[in-house]
Inverse folding.
C-alpha cells in the first residue's frame, strides 16, 4: 500500500526494520483500530512530512472520523430497533410463509434502493 518504506535485508535475506519503521507500523496499526482506512492513514502520514502543518489539520480529520462513526452508530441502532420490532412480533412457531420477520423483508420500503 506504500505506507512504509521497503526495509533492508541482512545477508541471510531477512528483512531488517529500523526503529522508525517499527514505530510507523505501530502508528498504522493503532490508526486502523481507531477506524481510519488505509487511504486516511496515508493522508495522516503525508501530513507529517509537510512543513508548517499543525495539529489543527489532524484534529479536523479526527473530528470527521468521529462524525462518520456517529452516523454508523445511528444507522446500526436503527437496524437494531427495526430487527427487535420484527423479533417481538414473531411467535417463534408456525409456517415460514406467515413469519412476521420474513414477510416485511419482501415488501419494498419507499425511498429504499432496489
Amino acid at each position: 500500500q506504500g505506507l512504509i518504506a521497503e526495509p533492508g535485508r541482512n545477508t541471510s535475506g531477512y528483512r531488517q526494520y529500523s526503529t522508525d519503521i517499527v514505530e510507523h507500523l505501530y502508528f498504522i496499526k493503532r490508526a486502523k483500530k481507531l477506524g481510519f482506512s488505509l487511504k486516511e492513514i496515508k493522508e495522516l502520514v503525508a501530513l507529517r512530512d509537510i512543513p508548517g502543518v499543525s495539529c489543527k489539520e489532524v484534529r479536523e480529520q479526527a473530528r470527521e472520523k468521529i462524525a462518520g462513526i456517529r452516523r454508523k452508530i445511528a444507522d446500526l441502532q436503527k437496524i437494531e430497533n427495526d430487527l427487535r420490532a420484527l423479533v417481538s412480533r414473531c411467535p417463534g412457531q408456525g409456517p415460514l410463509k406467515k413469519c412476521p420477520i420474513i414477510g416485511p423483508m419482501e415488501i419494498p420500503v419507499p425511498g429504499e434502493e432496489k
About this structure: The helical segments are 19-33, 38-48, 55-89, 102-105. Residues 1-53 form a domain with the Multidrug-efflux Transporter Regulator; Chain: A; Domain 2 fold (CATH 1.10.1660.10).
